Amino acid sequence: MAFRFEIIQTDNFSQGRVGRVETDHGSFATPAFLPVGTQGSVKSLTPEELMEIGVEAILGNTYHLYLRPGHEVIRKLGGLHHFIHWDRPILTDSGGFQIFSLGSLRKITEEGAAFQSHLDGSSHFLTPEKVMEIQIALGSDIAMVLDECVPYPSSYEYVNISMERTSRWAKRCLETKRENGPALFAIVQGGIYRDLRKKSAQTLVEMGFQGYAIGGLSVGEPKSSMQDVLEWTIPFLPISTPRYLMGIGTPEDILYAVMNGVDLFDCVLPTRNARNGTLFTSFGKISIKQAQYAEDGRPLDETCICYTCRNYSRAYLRHLYLSKEILSSRLNTIHNLYYYINLLIKIREAIKAGRFLEFYHSQTFQDGALRNSDTHLQSEGQ
Amino acid sequence: MAFRFEIIQTDNFSQGRVGRVETDHGSFATPAFLPVGTQGSVKSLTPEELMEIGVEAILGNTYHLYLRPGHEVIRKLGGLHHFIHWDRPILTDSGGFQIFSLGSLRKITEEGAAFQSHLDGSSHFLTPEKVMEIQIALGSDIAMVLDECVPYPSSYEYVNISMERTSRWAKRCLETKRENGPALFAIVQGGIYRDLRKKSAQTLVEMGFQGYAIGGLSVGEPKSSMQDVLEWTIPFLPISTPRYLMGIGTPEDILYAVMNGVDLFDCVLPTRNARNGTLFTSFGKISIKQAQYAEDGRPLDETCICYTCRNYSRAYLRHLYLSKEILSSRLNTIHNLYYYINLLIKIREAIKAGRFLEFYHSQTFQDGALRNSDTHLQSEGQ
Lengths: 382, 382
Known about the structure:
Two copies of one chain form a homodimer.
Chain A: E1 3-10, E2 17-23, E3 26-30, E4 32-34, E5 36-37, H1 47-53, E6 58-60, H2 62-67, H3 71-76, H4 80-84, E7 90-92, H5 96-101, E8 106-108, E9 113-116, E10 123-126, H6 128-138, E11 142-144, H7 156-176, E12 183-188, H8 194-207, E13 211-214, H9 223-233, E14 243-245, H10 251-259, E15 264-266, H11 269-275, E16 278-281, E17 284-287, H12 307-311, H13 314-322, H14 326-352, H15 356-362, H16 369-379
Parallel strand pairs in A: 4-15, 5-6, 6-7, 7-11, 11-12, 12-13, 13-14, 14-15
Antiparallel strand pairs in A: 1-2, 2-3, 8-9, 9-10, 16-17
Helix pairs in contact in A: 6-7, 7-8, 8-9, 11-14, 13-14, 14-15
């Protein structure tokens, strides 16, 4: 399958860059945020709604789709795109993070990962070769190598052993890669150890992948560790391939990572928050269930032009949330995803206009996290 | 508010008729099926989706909206149409049926109905005047009188007392009616007693309402009772006003009732069934969770052109249902409502074309209920 990454413009004052990823299912602009469609559905939305929001690519979870309905079923039915009625790019993860999340239900050996299904307790064994087979069956546009995601904290010794094994698994995935199959991205591991991150990156880059992800973050480490890992890793990744920060993150995280040269993001935050009634707005994060919105006839965010803000009041959104109406999840998800997609649009425009740092500094978020990390960044001489 | 009912065509061989109801929020064709938007949302769908399906009018539940978010809040925010972003006709029930459903939590007196909220146990007292005030505040197009819905079975003595009180309540509602308020429909009660149904109908018709509903059905009585009640009641209702069979029913029920001259229907069946994975198709009712659909790439109903059938396979619908995805409720609801709306379209076309009985006989449903009731109907000389 065709895969191409083109850098269109690089920021003069940071490592931010604007680019475009091309696949057989069309292209998408980077930096990009990919909503998560775990079980073959970006929760609560149709593909048409995703397109109206401006979503250009989504993520599917190999672990979940392998267990249910099964990759062979999806292959027989014409592949994941056809199955879920989404004809634009799909990136599939490898299941490494989900298997990690199973805790004591998994066992890692050199050969692969043994685990018990979270659905029915049945036993499974995934190898690097098997996850490639699954992702090929799904018809993914971008596949990820199988990796071991280690918990935080983990000892240097264990992270070292694990990272080396993840590199050997990456090699096995690469050897299984097919010309007419998905593009293949490797995953840098190494926990919060600088030299291990460097070694992981160097080893993988030497093998030659079509993109590189930074994995093993958002597993309980402090926020500053995420920032450290980005700074330790990215210098060892090629300029010319996409860099993907897996499972991250908040708007602040995304801004910070873009400044450091990251091109791809995925995260359940906007969609999960939406279902919990937590909404991103131009004036900060809000909880729609608060009593102050009970008779508030204004749109959620008066600066927003998403379907939700164009047609419904805060009072109605609060009512739907309190009434546990399905429409609550839908309207909130539309808004939060629009917020994220629009943030990425503004980021790309700022980079193109040569004013990304200005944009970065203009963004303020309710919890102040951005301003702190900001100071940190500056002290690192970016 | 304007309200007009026009009969466009009457069937030669049954009491079926095609008409049109006009309100300040536009008109709708009859016989009509109104989806239920209990809490200000037809569960899982947006107003745009309802319109795409062909829905022309919906029902709102006074009881639920009174309790949450409160009719005064809705009034302040511009009325129910604006609040829920639906600018077409809305019929509101009076809460009688919901209060009945509370069982021991309610107490009926001459003055009105005392009950405890199903939400928080708080005490409330609804009178005929109060339910009018609420429905006026909501800005409903068609309001219903407060009625007492008696359980099945109930003694002749109690049903008689209750029916007489319901008539007095109807009178009080009529006295509260405003020129610029909603149209007002009365509700015929009388349980399964022929003379009480007749008396109820005659008393209410004498008062002069803009429409008449047949209430107190679908409360546990046998199907034949519903059919009896229709036949006992409708001859005493005016030809020129709409007849509304509340809370009914299955496709078979609707066909039967249309044949007997009913114009309006509402029921949670298509929407609730959808969420439970039970789908109406041209080949009968099916349960989408069945294993036989696991690898079935065909649309749910190959003769259907709804959004769901145009874009998704049975296998995907089954997968979404088993995965408890919100999209499952959405796609199933779209299909089931489309089935109902389309059934009503076919009914109207059949009446207009002078072949309603032919159409009636051509309809077969999986459980055979229609064929049985059919026999019964014929023996009554229709």
